[in-house]
Amino acid sequence: MELKNRKLTQDEFFKEREEVLQQWPTGKSVDLEKAIEYQQGIASAKRFGDKLAKAKAEGVTLIQPRAGVALYTEHIKLLQYLETEGEADLLPSTIDSYTRLNRYKEAEVGIEKSKESGRSMLNGFPAVNYGVDICRTVTSSLETPVQVRHGTPDARLLTEITIAGGFTSYEGGGISYNIPYSKNHSLASTIAHWQYADRLVGIYEEAGVSINREPFGPLTGTLVPPCISNSVAIIEALLAATQGVKDITVGYGQCGNLIQDVAAIRALNHLTREYLDKFGFEDVRVTTVFHQWMGGFPQDEAKSFAVISWGAAAAVLAKATKVIVKTPHEAMGVPTKEANAAGLKATKQLTSMLKDQSFVEIPAVVAESQIIKEEVTCILNKVEELGKGDYVQGTIAAFEAGVIDIPFAPSKFNAGKLMPARDNSGAVRLLDTGNVPLTPELKAFHRSKLEERAAFEKRPVSFQMVVDDVYAIGKGFLVGRPHGK
Amino acid sequence: MELKNRKLTQDEFFKEREEVLQQWPTGKSVDLEKAIEYQQGIASAKRFGDKLAKAKAEGVTLIQPRAGVALYTEHIKLLQYLETEGEADLLPSTIDSYTRLNRYKEAEVGIEKSKESGRSMLNGFPAVNYGVDICRTVTSSLETPVQVRHGTPDARLLTEITIAGGFTSYEGGGISYNIPYSKNHSLASTIAHWQYADRLVGIYEEAGVSINREPFGPLTGTLVPPCISNSVAIIEALLAATQGVKDITVGYGQCGNLIQDVAAIRALNHLTREYLDKFGFEDVRVTTVFHQWMGGFPQDEAKSFAVISWGAAAAVLAKATKVIVKTPHEAMGVPTKEANAAGLKATKQLTSMLKDQSFVEIPAVVAESQIIKEEVTCILNKVEELGKGDYVQGTIAAFEAGVIDIPFAPSKFNAGKLMPARDNSGAVRLLDTGNVPLTPELKAFHRSKLEERAAFEKRPVSFQMVVDDVYAIGKGFLVGRPHGK
Amino acid sequence: MEKKTIVTGVIGADVHAVGNKIIAYALEKEGFNIVNLGVMVSQEEYIAAALETNADVILVSSLYGHGEIDCQGLREKCDEAGLKGIPLLAGGNLVVGKQDFAEVEKRFMDMGFTKAYPPGTTIETTIADLKEILGLS
Amino acid sequence: MEKKTIVTGVIGADVHAVGNKIIAYALEKEGFNIVNLGVMVSQEEYIAAALETNADVILVSSLYGHGEIDCQGLREKCDEAGLKGIPLLAGGNLVVGKQDFAEVEKRFMDMGFTKAYPPGTTIETTIADLKEILGLS
Ligand code: B12
Ligand code: B12
Questions:
Q1: How does pLDDT run across B143-199, given as a tens digit for each residue?
Q2: Residue range A419-431: average pLDDT?
Q3: Interior CA angle at B119 toward B116 and B123, to 5°?
Q4: Phi, psi of B333, rounded to the nearest 5 degrees
Q5: SS3 C88
Q6: How many alpha carbons fall within 13 Å on the CB side of residue A159?
Q7: pTM value?
């Protein structure tokens, strides 16, 4: 059957489900009815969506770390520590890379090796191997809502197990957990897998249990232009809503120029609402997440604190509903719990201290967000056109054609023709628009911004700028200037 | 003779000088001619003013720590460490509190006790007790320009010794090192003492040696409204220029609201230039310094990093010529060298990363700085009026009348009638203008800003807001809200 | 019940005025009779004020790091002046640098202080302790 | 002088593509012949590519923390495939978490790697070392 953007039927879903639950022995223990009952018993204070809605109403920005280790007892201790010592408002369980690739056998080895060596040999929490009950042990040990964060192209079994396991929010999407995280998965396959995951959330919704869903905003985390990440987020929001999801948090990864960063969240917030409304999803709740700097980090911990704090400040000034927090160990490896808590506390300081300041409506931000909106509209119009009105078909065709194109993506289904570079103030612009269908005016705007930089640096606009920009942050800068500039 | 704002004659200066050099035995070793020669031998790269001028031309923000310990060998090691490991662009020698109060005997005890106990029992470097030669040992051990930073009402001997000792910049002023730092010194006495210090710098200037001078901008560091700190900085710049000073850095301590902070530096920069020009000092060079948060700090080190970083960001976005850096130990005590370097590195990360972004000309900043300019003009017009055109007489009268009034100042020569409080976005406004001669429009502006906050907090505008604002930062906030707001 | 009297001030050559003003304001609001000597207070001034006002407690602040030097001998001088046993509290940033507070506390107890407080002591703690020391709670 | 050939790639289930693209670009610019396998490269793929192109070095990146597991046995497989002695370099974020690099290095040397590099190794270091290993400098 042709893949379309339409709600899976009960038949389709439950037929597929039989297979999914057999992918690993722990699948057998998922009982949907009991799981719904279990979820219904979770108090509002521990529900992700409720806490986000409250924050949105109050205009404050919540803080959330990334964290996950191999052994579940250690994982609980880690999350409890981040909750108390780290003052986290929201908690994660970051899933390990083997699980993300459905390599549960290797995850099992990782668990065993971790037990032996006494240190976590996995880069996250292997939820599938543990199964429903241990997940419930984890989520019920905490006062704070917990979300599954991963990067899994085929996350169907993980979704089943973790939602039954008491998690109340779930990150990912058919595009955002494919193109930046995978090499060989076709978009058709991952979109189908995520229709399943979203449909499962829809079924919970229909039973009165609201699970928050979050497309992964930052994509590859490196020089991703706001129009690209916004377009992907909006598409995934539409796809999720189609399957019955009612609570969506759209995200964006900090690029570093404050005006552009605030503008990107502003545009994302407005456009997601507009597009959902346009397709009849007026009842879907929208919140936003700002990711602190997702690219390469400085090695030095003090310098990392500065990058973290700058991200915290931008998140608050943009009035994002939550901010995902990095740690002073970012450049080194998975952080210790102390380093994780330190990143949180630095962030909390600024989400508190700056909560009464907003940059959302200053003229420069409004102007920049107007540009992003125009760009996104160009892209999404083309997606609709290519899909003849269908966003799934349109998206697949758009990636094929390079209409949506994510810089530095490992996927072979990504065109890789778009070339981003920073302008003279550090905002991310398009050096080569590839096949992204911007209007001539918009293209000229990007070009002029880069010419401005080129003039300042006394060199032509060229690919060397892109390379310099990737290296720049390692040297402490945002814009990669030639020597002596 | 009546104290006036006029250049000291050679006779007056050298007569006074005889006395000054006798205040402590090390005074004898100051030989002005040889000192000028010594200063002439200091290379441009190690001269404070030259490095500032270069930074101003390039539009970058330099970083400078505070640091000083009792034993000079340790002091040298400390500064070398901050230079290499801390990546400081400019260095300080922070003077201890006994020296600041001319209690050289107690400083001597402090040196002895430090030798015995192996830890610094003084909160700074006792330069007078050490004398010219040891100061030269210090300044010549470093690659970077070094400044004397203190808080000394009568700094005449300290100035003589340290400039002869190779320091190329000198902080302080007759108002800014009196009212926040002293209880009983009359303004007349400290202004006279600082005329001496400025005249000495003028004599060096006339011999071709430029010493940078910096009025202490932040004053008490706590809820100081920009119009007050700007007025004091401009007056001290005028007084210094009158004595022949040619290189002045005017300063401001972060209040926390980004728009107001950038606006304050903008207004300070413009107005200092204007007033110097107005009085014929077109040849005086002006640069600016932004002080990271000068009030009470959070106890937690990670949170301190956030406050430090936010100050660094504001400094760069305001395009200040340099930023004075706090440390993660601020709330605890004089920092270790590691903590000091950490504060510097966090700051360096942002002065590099954000150097291509400026907020100086955004409309909200321009509007806010317009208000500050109007306020300062009101104050300085009144100072001129009270002094019948003489800024020294005018200043003394202005403090007496509360026309200039510094919140939380310990000095009995400060009126203490002005009452600052934060508005709903955290900008510092005037709850009670005391006798500060603002126009009715400006008063109404302040009032309306505070009424806005009062309405939000559902309580009347009152002194409790001031108290809440002082406590707020200890709880992580800028604005001290009543419970549950 | 009669109002208790507390002498407050910042000792030595220390000019940190903010905490002092805030403490005085808060304690007054709490119903204490406050004799605030402000900043740069000598040992003699504390004692004179305590004698004159028949004070129940002397609350010494020191922020600038020289507290350890400035506070030496205060207890002895109190004893001599006829203020034997008067509670002496010290707080602020009592020593130079970040030091293990247990050790700092010990040094101040050895000097005869009733209690010593670490940096960042909240006004709530200060009030609660004062009430306990004065038998008010 | 003949161009030296280097096989590059990110091992295992690792998809961190940025460093890999940048390294390939920089080494090519430096005059090397680069066979870039991209991300998610298996041990077998490295070996096949090295054999096919008669490579002089295999440069293994691993960022995501599982490098220690993924790299086990690579040297033995090289030996078996007839690539005895081929320089094997590993770099990136080789292990989970912030660990003492001396120990990490030892573990990789014990696995038969020629050299192992800590996080944040600059491209300048990478180029300099390659030249030394290949006797080009
Ligand atoms: C961007 C990024 C991502 C992007 C990657 C997008 C993409 N497809 O490329 C996304 C968001 C998708 C991502 C995902 C994940 N990531 Co990631 N990611 C990063 C980050 C922030 C930057 C990496 C980067 O691009 N650096 C810039 C490039 C230029 O530098 P580089 O890759 O380090 O390479 C340089 C040097 O290391 C050296 N080098 C590299 N290889 C070699 C080899 C040799 C021989 C030599 C000499 C030199 C050398 O040369 C390069 C140029 O100078 C790092 C942290 C960091 N470094 O700051 C984390 C990091 C690598 N990620 C990490 C993790 C755990 C993950 C995830 C598992 C979970 C997660 N956090 O989401 C998934 C993994 C998915 C998978 N299966 O691989 C961890 C690894 C932990 C560990 N080792 O202990 C890190 C360290 C973050 C952290 N502290 O937790 N990530
Ligand atoms: C503002 C400030 C200044 C202003 C003071 C303006 C003024 N006249 O008031 C200025 C800039 C002038 C200044 C000058 C100096 N300062 Co200063 N200053 C500060 C700062 C940032 C905040 C102090 C403050 O107002 N806090 C807010 C109030 C509300 O809190 P508080 O005073 O701590 O009081 C609270 C508690 O401690 C407690 N408390 C206080 N006393 C007592 C007593 C008892 C018995 C109890 C129970 C509780 C209690 O209750 C209060 C309310 O909660 C502190 C660092 C910090 N704390 O963040 C440094 C700090 C106190 N200063 C310091 C120093 C060294 C100096 C200088 C010598 C040099 C310099 N850095 O410029 C000069 C000293 C001049 C002198 N002779 O005293 C050091 C002291 C170092 C040490 N102890 O090791 C500090 C800690 C900064 C640092 N880390 O280096 N300073």
A1: 999 999 999 999 999 999 999 999 999 999 999 999 999 999 999 999 999 999 999
A2: 97
A3: 115
A4: 165, -175
A5: strand
A6: 28
A7: 0.96
Range B386-414 average pLDDT: 97
Helices then strands, each counted (H, E), chain D? 6, 5
CA dist A229 and A225 (Å) reads 7
pLDDT category of residue A78 using cuts at 50, 70 and 90? very high
Say how far apart CA B262 and CA B242 lie, in whole Å.
29
Contact A347 B473 (CB under 8 A): no
Q: What is the rounded CA–CA span in Å between residue A197 and residue A173?
A: 9
DSSP string over B307-342: HHHHHHHHHHHTT-SEEE---TTTTTSSPPHHHHHH
pLDDT confidence bin for B485, thresholds 50/70/90: low
Measured at the CA of B370, the angle between CA A311 and CA B352, to 5 degrees, comes to 30
Sequence-ordered strand ranges (E) for B164-222: 169-171, 212-214
Tokens 């929208």, residue located: A286
Of all residues in chain D, the one with the smallest CA distance to A475 is D122
Length of chain D: 137
Name which of A309, A363, A426 is nearest B305 (Cβ-Cβ): A309
List of chain C residues with pLDDT < 50 = none
Report yes or no: C123 at the B interface, CB cutoff 8 Å. yes
Residue pair D19/A410 in contact by the 8 Å Cβ criterion:
no
Give CA–CA dist A162/A240, Å, rounded.
Answer: 18
Asked if the ipTM is above 0.90, the reply is yes
D27, D36, D61, D64: best to mutate for the A interface, most A CBs within 10 A: D64
Of A256, A259, A364, the CB nearest to B353: A256
- The rounded distance, in Å, linking the Cα atoms of B329 and B345 is 14
- Report the side by side order of strands in the sheet with C5-10: C33-36, C5-10, C57-62, C88-92, C115-116
Most ligand 2 atoms within 8 A of CB, residue of C63, C95, C113 to mutate: C63
Q: For residues D37-59, b (16+ Cβ closer than 10 Å) or e, as one string?
A: bbbbbebeebbebbeeeebbbbb
Band (A108; pLDDT cuts 50, 70, 90)? very high
Three-point CA angle B398, B402, B404, nearest 5°: 60
**How confident is the model over A212-236, as a mean pLDDT?**
98
CB atoms near residue A42 (< 10 Å): 18
DSSP notation for B49-106 = HHHHHHHHHHT--EEE-----SSHHHHHHHHHHHHHTS--SSEEEEPPHHHHTT-HHH
Does the beta carbon of A300 lie under 8 angstroms from any beta carbon of chain B? yes
User: Could you give all domains of chain D from N- to C-terminal order, each with its CATH number?
Assistant: 5-131 (3.40.50.280)
- Nearest-ligand number for the alpha carbon of B120: 2
pLDDT of residue C1: 55
Which pair of structure tokens corresponds to residue C61? 């602040």
Q: Are B397 and B405 in contact (CB under 8 A)?
A: no
pLDDT-derived band at A485, boundaries 50, 70, 90: low
B405 C-alpha to center of ligand 2: Å?
Answer: 21
State the pLDDT at residue B466: 92
**Does B478 contact A at CB distance below 8 Å?**
yes
E strands present in chain C: 5-10, 33-36, 57-62, 88-92, 115-116
Query: For residue D11, is pLDDT > 90?
Result: yes
